[in-house]
Structure formats: C-alpha cells, structure tokens
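Hello Y.,

Per our agreement to keep a running log of every chain we model this quarter, I'm adding this entry. I've kept the format consistent with earlier entries: sequence first, then predicted structure.
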Amino acid sequence: MKRILTAVLLLPTLLYAQINTERVMTIARNALYFEDYVLSIQYFNQVINAKPYLFEPYFFRGLAKINLDDYQGAEADCDEAIRRNPFVVGAYQIRGLARIRQNNFDGAIDDYRTALKYDPENLVLWHNLSLCHIQKKDYVAAKDDLGKLLKVSPRYMPAYLMRGEVNLRQNDTIQALADFNKAIELERYEPDGWGARAIVYMSQGEYKKAEDDLDQAIHLSARNAGYYINRALARFHQNNLRGAMRDYDLALDIDPNNFLGHYNRGLLRAQVGDDNRAIEDFDFVLEMEPDNMMATFNRGLLRAQTGDYAGSVSDYSRVIEEYPNFTTGYYYRAEARRKMGDQKGAEQDELLLMQMEIDRRNKNLTAQNADEEKKQSGDDAETSDEGKTRKKSDKNIRNYRKVVVADDSEMGQRYTSDYRGRVQNKNVTIKLEPLYALTYYEKVSDVKHTVHFYSFIDSLNQEKIFPKPLRITNMEAPLTEEQVRFHFEFINAHTAEIVENSQDAVICFMRGLDFYLVQDFASSIDDFTQSILLDDNFFPAYFMRALVRYKELEYKKAETTLREDAGQQVSTTEQGAGVRAVDYEIVRSDLDNVIRLAPDFVYGYYNRGNVLSMLKDYRAALADYDKAIELNPNFAEAYFNRGLTRIFLGNNKQGIADLSKAGELGIVSAYNIIKRFTDVSE
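Predicted structure for the entry above:
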C-alpha cells in the first residue's frame, strides 16, 4: 500500500498543506539527531512551506545549517525563529554561535545577554559569553562574567581554565596558577588543566615542573599534538635534545602538518648531525610557507653541509634578496661558491662584505637610524643573543637558529576556542560503540580499515539485486543531497515493484532500507515487518528492524531535552510515554531471531550485547560479547564494549585489558578511557 507521506515527499506538485507536518517534523528531527543534516533540512523545508508561521522548523533548520558550517544561513533561520517566538533560548544560543563564526562578537554578546534574561543559570550561555569577551580582549568583562558563572556553578572547571588564561594574558601568573590549580583539583582526569598549568610554569622558567604536568596531560590525552610540542620545548630548555626530538616525532605522527613540529625538529636534527632528515623537515616547512626566510636559510646551511652547494647558494640568494644587509648570508654564500668552483662569485660576495664593514664603520648614524637599519636588515645582535627561542611572528633573520614557540595570542587557543553551541542532547560520558547496521554508506576512518564480511550478505551482493552493495558497518555516513534524491526515487520504484509482486520479501526489505536511510523509521519498520511476514527466515529483516527500533528509542530519550531547548513544555503524559525496559525487550526479541537463524552472524551477538547493556543485564551482555569475540578474534568494537561492561561490573583490570586490545585494533578513544581508570599519579 502506498503511503501518503511518501507521495507527498516525491510529488512536489501536490499542495504542501496536504502533508502531515507533525509526522514530517518527527522524521526531520530524527535525521537531525542522527547528524544527517542535509536530509533534515529537506524535511524542514517541507514543513516551512506548509506552515510558515511555525518557529520550530526554522530553529532546527538553523541548527542543521550551523553543523554544515552555513553560518549565514543559520543566523537567518534563527532570525525567523525569534521573529515568530522571541522567548526561545536555543535560538539566541545558536544565532550567537553563528555570529561568532562570522567574527561578529558584539552581535553574539547581545544574543547571549538576551538569552540569559530568560535562562540565567544556563552554563553554555555564560561560557560562550565569556569567550566572546576574551576574543575582544575585554578582559575586565570576561572576568566579571566568569565570576557570575562560578556563582551559578562553583565546580564548573572550564571557567577556571578561562579565567586562568585571562590572568595569563594580563601577565598575572600568580592568579593564573591559582585558577589552573583549582581546575586540576576539580577535574584531575581532564588533561586541559595540566596542559594549561604547564604553560604558566614554562613562562616562569620552571621547565621540569612544566614537563611533569605535560606528562600528566599526555597520560590523559595521548592524541593531542600540542602537548608533545610543549613538552619538547620544556625538554629543549633542559638540554634534553633527544627527548625533545622524540616528542616532535610523536606530535607529527598525530598532526603531520604541524609547523612548529617540523621547524623545530629540523633545527634539533641539524644540531645532532642528522642533516638529511633535517633538510626533509625544512622542505616540508617551505611547502607550507614558501616565503619563510629562516627555514630557507637553515636549509641552505644544511645543503652546504651535505655537499649540495648549488642548492645552498640558491637558498642563500633568496634570503639575501629579502635581507640585502644580512652579512651572515654573504659570508656563507661566498664559502659555498668557492667550494663549487665559482671563484668570481665568491670574490664578489667577499668584496661586498668588506664594503659593508667599511660602511658600517664610517657611517655616523643616529640611534634612530641605526635601530631602523637593524629592523629592516634583521642585523640586530642584541636581540639575536637573547634567549634560546623566538616567537613565530618574529621575522628577525638573525634568529634563524632559535627554536620557534607559538605567539602569545595562540598559546591559549586550546582552551578558548571551545564554543558550545550544540543544542542536541549529546552524551559526552563514556559510552558503548554503536550498533552495526546493513546500509549502503560508510564513513571512512583514518585509523580503522576493516572490511566486515558475512557470506549471506555477500551472496545477496553477488546477485546484484540491490541498487548498491550492502555494507555491514557501525560507522554510518549521512546522505548527501544527491543520495537523498536517489533513495526517494527508489522508494517510488520499489513501491511499483511491490504493487506488481506483493509477495517478494527482499523488495519489501529494500524499500524498508530506503525508508531507514531517509530517516522515516515508522515506514521502515512497517516494511521490515512485511518482509518478515513474507519470509520469516530472512534474518536481515529482523536485524534491521531491531536496529531501527533501537534508534527510535534512542531518539525518544533525547526528545524531551530537544523540546525543552526549543522552548516547549513537555506534559506529564508525554513524559510518561518515554522509553521503558519492555521497549528494549522487543528489540532483543528481534536479535534473538537473528541469532537463531544465523548463529554465526557475529553482529547479531554484538548488537544484542549492546541492548542487554542498555537493560543493565551486564553479565548476559558479557556472554554475547564473548561469543562475538570467539567468532571474530579481531572484533575491535566487541573488545571495547566488553571492556566497558567489565568496568561497569567493577572488574577494572580485565576491562582495561579489553580496552587495550580495542585500541590496538584501531579504536583510539580506548586509550583515553584506560587513562581515566588509571590513577594519574602512577
């Protein structure tokens, strides 16, 4: 039977007023919650065209747009939402974030102040408001707002981090240290406090203390390149060059394009005589910044050291062209030219050096002119001898041998760029790896490259009856606009096939999969159910019906928060219609059938383990994860979830062993969780 909703979606000639806007809004918010932003926008468009007086579709469409980096579009949609309902706190919050992304900090401040009138205890609003003041360098206002935030929530750790950074920018290291100490006291398993305090210690010359703090930060967040870069600097100041180079190696494994990592590692490699690999680092720097004269000069020195005199002369000449009074450049170019047999060129450089020395002695410059000459030529001996490091923005060519550090304006970006604008109820606690699905689309992972295989699914693909090959994945990719159109068309095509042959279980399954991909869960469940009625041995229908029902439950749990964020009241009746344990039992029943029909289908056990965990039946969940690992000893997600389940049961040692195996197999987040359950002081 053709569905009215489907016809409306696919036939735009019908009147928009005919659509069931409440149903379409539910589908749209499903898509939004599961981060299928392009698809959700198309559904919100239909609701807006049918009922343009509603504020909700504009608000949620703005939220979808901001997640697609369409900041102007998000701001415009929030304007429309506020015009229709000026009391929606979430609309000001999202518009404020959209304005921040467009560097309109004054507009964002206005939005957050307005929203705080309606919700004065909203931590996200205070957080972003404070960051806006920091971006404007209005440190007095930032401290004032952070003080108010801490009155609302005295244990809100990020506020201490932000206030510590403000104090640091005002050169008040004592107060900065006090704030960072408090942040660590509140959240000793969060790396940001340790990393921030290390910056203060480095500014005070306490390099060993800085290194110790960075050890702790890395212990808690091993995939943060910035911590390794900073620890390398602390080690460099303690003359631990090998340790510093190891840190740069680790940082560049994580962030291969890190400028500081390549430049400083190149300098250190040169110091220990590893000239060829130092040249590779400076080559990389010059690919990133072709006009970086200090990298060019360092590469020239290294080329000469390795016998590439023509290359070194080329580099020296570029630097001399930029800094015509840089005497050191002429000296080294003359030396390289002589070694390559260019006596005439070498003599010309030496003559220029002599003339510059005579001019230097004879010129009777005023102090002002001398300073100006030094500034232009980079020939400032006093500055070049001061310290072992230079700021990244320092263009004094005489400082070419100095290790580069981030500018003051960049030092705290790790702690002040965390604008919080997601209105969805996003779980930021430790959670299980998601369920597996049968789908056509999969996200690409930089770490994991596993192809999931099952013979029956492969045989379906070999028959080429599906429009695309079926994939088994728990990393589902959101649909592009073209893919959305593709599946709407296939819903029509499959509907026509069902009319012709209503007894084909596979066609019903295919249409159910199309409905699932366009986030129409109710229609999807209907089709999977019909597929099961036609062929109760077709286990993929049970498998996908369980997944869709599980996702419906997940969405329902978030629905109350979403509606409250949108400024709506949730009635007692609606609260009572929430998710119950019996709902998960229905999902479990479908997975029981999957395992009965396909006892070697590892993903049935894995998904059922997740459902049992949701039911807090951890021992039964462990049994399913055990079976999944028995069937596939390299099943990373099963190790990860079994590790968390064991930790939930208080068995940290075995849990950490499982998480370690999961990390080894490519789930990087496992290492962070391991560190959370390992005492920082160890």
